[in-house]
Amino acid sequence: MREHRIPVRAETQWKLFSTESPRRVKPLLYVYRVLLTGIRLMRTGEIEANLVTLNESFRLPQIPGLIARKLAGPEHSRLADADMAFHESEYRRLRDELQRAHESSHLIESPDAQTRAALNDLLVRIRTGR
Asked: What pTM did the predictor assign?
């Protein structure tokens, strides 16, 4: 069984969002995007970072409204304190779901030495234009 780890990126995004005053929609959307991207990656091995596309399969009813508020401009982006309990509950639920997906994932923890060397070579060639 895999080691129990708190999803660090999700935790960081949540802390940034929860300490903001006033709280805004955009950082909250980052939290949802990080969590849903991670869950999908652990389940499928595929990276998808578009929240609209992710929500086609997750179907979280709050996402379309939050996106609409963000797109409507800064005057609509503040979140009421009353909404925090719901979003914190969703954050914790999705974080737990991400942890379960991580524990049952068939993805390898880290690549072998040959793969790391090939990746390093690719990055060097990209950076140097060779």
From this structure: 0.83
